[in-house]
Specification:
This protein has about 110 residues and is α/β, with parallel strands linked by helices. Helix content is about 40%, strand content about 35%. The protein is built from 4 helices and 5 strands. A 5-stranded mixed β-sheet has the order 1-2-3-4-5. Helix 1 packs parallel to helix 2.
Amino acid sequence: MSLNVSTTQIKNCIVVHIQGKILAESDAELLSNAVSKLNSYKLIFEIKELSHINSTGISVFVKTMTQCRIESGDLVICSPNKIISNLFEITKMNDVFSIYDSVESALTYFK
């Protein structure tokens, strides 16, 4: 399955729905390009349909979070599946990112 990125605006946040795999540089570039076109730095990456991610994808997440924070916003992650949750625990990315169970709970972070 190739990478698919779509967005939804909810109040002052943009939810970035990510489906598929982020394993190649082309996948990372697709996500980076989609995020660079957004008009908000309050982002929620909704990743329940993200099946695989490696260091290439994680680096895009970290760069995006850094850019959001520079612009007085932030990036939070919601709805990771069990495989991605385990990966984030192993790599300690769960200490880097705020991770929520749902979009609704992630929205409370920005209130």
